Amino acid sequence: MVAERILFRLLPLVALLGLALRLRSSVSPAVSHHGLQETSHFGQMVGVSGVGRSLLQDDENDKHSEDEVALLVMKLNRSSLLPLPVLSEQRCAPTKGVWCAQFHGQTPAPRYLPKYYNKPCPNNCSGVGVCHAEYGMCFCPAGYGGPDCAAPRKRPCAHMGTDKRDAGWHNLTTWSHTRCAGVCDDDIAMCYCPPDTKYGRKEAPPGSPLGSPPLQAGRPLFMCTPGTDSEGRKVEWGGTPFPDMFGPAGWCNADKPNFTCPCRLDGLHGPLCDVVSEQVCPNQCSGRGRCNQGFCACQQGWYGVDCALRREGVAAEEQGLELLTKQPWLPAVRTHIVATEDPPLTPVRRRPYVYVYDMKPEYGSDLLQYRIEGSHCVYRTFKTDNTPDWVGYNAYSTEPVLHELFLASEHRTLDPEEADFFFVPVNVGCMLDVYGWNEVPRWPKDVHGPRSHGLSLMQREAQRWLNATFPWFARRGGRDHIWFNPHDEGACYVWKDVWPGVMLSHWGRTDFPHLSHTAYGQDNYSMSLQHPEHPGDWLDHTSRTHPCFDPKKDLVIPAFKPPRHYHKSPYLGAPPPAAGRDIFAFFMGDLRMQPGRDPDCIYSRCIRQTLYNLSISNHWKEAHAIWYGERKDVAGSGEDYSELLARSTFCFVLPGDGWSPRLEDAVLHGCIPVIIMDDVQVVFESIIDVEQFSVRILQRDIPNVVDILKRIPPTTVKTMQEKLHKVWHRFRFLGLRMARAEARKLLEAHQERAGGSAPRHPGAEYSIHAQDDAFDTLMQWLYSRIPSVHSGSG
Ligand SMILES: *[C@@H]1O[C@H](CO)[C@@H](O)[C@H](O)[C@H]1NC(C)=O
Ligand SMILES: *[C@@H]1O[C@H](CO)[C@@H](O)[C@H](O)[C@H]1NC(C)=O
Ligand SMILES: *[C@@H]1O[C@H](CO)[C@@H](O)[C@H](O)[C@H]1NC(C)=O
Ligand SMILES: *[C@@H]1O[C@H](CO)[C@@H](O)[C@H](O)[C@H]1NC(C)=O
Ligand SMILES: *[C@@H]1O[C@H](CO)[C@@H](O)[C@H](O)[C@H]1NC(C)=O
Ligand SMILES: *[C@@H]1O[C@H](CO)[C@@H](O)[C@H](O)[C@H]1NC(C)=O
Ligand SMILES: *[C@@H]1O[C@H](CO)[C@@H](O)[C@H](O)[C@H]1NC(C)=O
């Protein structure tokens, strides 16, 4: 303990010296079976002594590495990065109205100690849940419920019998994602080899304390379903021969099985699915808890969705030990939580003050725990050696990004009394991922209708819970509550009681009345639903009562894109393409034109398809250097999407089933957006003068697209490009540590490759700085909304 204590005192200094970085890269990639690193490297590296003011000031760390990068950049080419603009006129350049200048005009207030709470919880949450010291409420992991987490709260596999085994392989022929041929972990509806096999799951013996881990986890059987039974009879809902799964040489019995089942649960790797890595949790439980598939089981004295909140009277000194000694990979992904600084290290604060709710697990952590595909619901993951990585593709990843950014924000307050706004982190995007896997969860419980019903009703339940539990929802009629709606068609379906709040989405459709225009039936929010849980048709509570987007109170925000997505952008220091912007206009994306895929041409309002046919019949590529179509039409396999965008003068912004992040793609590459979707505002269009750097073409003018673009004079093109340089940074989120680190790495690489003569590209001064990024823009705009939100004047 004494040694640990000394270690702890050294940490800030280590961070200051930038050793933490080297520490991370020096640890061997070998990971023990539990995914925990030996601590010895750390001890060896620290040969200095000193006392720091507080732990985990990774802002220090940030600052330090930013200085380091600045030095490097200077060494390479003193002129390649301009200083960031400081004057409000420059920073607010192409914005609409006064929100930006107002924000900068406010007088900062001093930051006080965070507010501490100390409410007890029933039965200490039975040792499985986390006691929330502000709410006096147990937050339970999946599987446990009731006021003290002692009641079972199950998510059974499909067609599960009483013994957690399938109720009869021949008895029901229907396949389902969670139908289980082995034994079901019915906390989350995950399937494993049965206990009577060598690599089967062996639960903790009866009478063990609640939440005891299994004696043996077992090999997963998820998405591995039998095509035959033990007697060789055909099983209708599966495909894998019985011996491959359960025979002596099969997956469940052999040390070296002759057949392998998929291994996709978060934190499991390797051909035998027994290599364990860190799982993903909000802000990685701040290093003060164990991450269980998205649920943070916090250490005694700590609580909150990310274990960042300290119970009153608990000594702060304990923080961080585990983080840097046992889990040295966490600093790379953890974001520093300004609101919990004690003493305050960020001396001043600016409004808006935003309170971030911890939502009941039903609307939050459950959904993360229910994701049987590790890549669902998250924006990052950990590789076998615990290095963090982005998940390949998750359209809804702005949801976890926003949650972490709100938690970490300088604008966050721990005191709801003083809050200007309340952020409500309901995992509706995660629900979109999880919805098809199992009957549970459902809203209403007995309806398995379109996802839009489920999402809307889940939000409504969350709103009712807020209103029944806290005084804050009713205080301003819900107007100060912020909800994010990543659904393809944004907030169109939102319940009327939720709607008065601030709707954040990627879809700025303004016409009213409106009908769903998705080609994906599961998302059609215009399907009616009669249910005893609400009188009449749900449509009369939702989409018939409001537009999808109200430019006055709502905001269209960018989708999250990691820097690697725009790695060839001049704004990240990439050299301009040899031939300049030689592509006149560009679009690459899904067209759904294969026979039978979308016979009525509903997808993209038939815009993408109509343009494609025009491009073919008029030879756009040869005649006008307009590259348009799917990858096979546009680019050879080697051509890089980012590079193509950087080579283009105009880039089409067209809908998909609803939103599609094309405006972001264009702007982040300095390409002039050509927006074709009537009555739909693009990202920030209500607050930034998008007209200054884009072209909008009405759907009925699609046949004249080429003429319209050709008629734009080169001087106008140049002016638009110059505007883009001044505003591009507002269209990406750079507040995550992983994003900043990657942007730095890309910039460094570009600089190094240029051998010290990288040209100075206007706009590149923002390449590695989060100042005035998308999240800052949101905060700055929210500030301007305070008077009307608080007074109810709309
Ligand atoms: C809850 O746990 C804490 C810490 O272990 C202990 O001090 C407290 O007495 C417990 N309370 C109850 C009601 O069991
Ligand atoms: C069929 O399934 C039901 C449960 O759905 C079970 O009670 C019954 O025993 C099964 N019958 C056979 C013949 O497997
Ligand atoms: C695996 O071995 C079993 C015999 O135990 C055999 O029946 C089966 O066909 C083998 N499967 C594969 C994929 O080789
Ligand atoms: C919120 O709760 C208050 C007090 O119980 C009630 O009057 C009001 O109708 C509720 N509002 C909504 C939108 O649920
Ligand atoms: C969505 O559902 C409504 C009501 O059933 C239907 O009229 C409409 O055609 C559907 N929309 C699409 C795009 O399929
Ligand atoms: C595009 O061309 C194909 C082939 O000629 C045709 O089947 C399809 O209907 C056309 N689609 C549109 C939207 O013009
Ligand atoms: C830095 O880049 C500029 C072009 O932007 C070039 O003119 C200059 O020579 C470079 N400086 C050095 C020291 O290489």
Automatic annotation (TrEMBL):
One Gene Ontology MF term: glycosyltransferase activity
Membrane-related topology note: Single-pass type II membrane protein
Gene3D superfamilies: Galactose-binding domain-like, Laminin
Record keywords: Disulfide bond, EGF-like domain, Glycoprotein, Golgi apparatus, Signal
Signal peptide: 1-22
Protein name: EGF-like domain-containing protein
Domain EGF-like: 117-150
Family: Belongs to the glycosyltransferase 47 family.
Disulfide bonds: C121-C131, C140-C149
One Pfam entry name: Exostosin_GT47
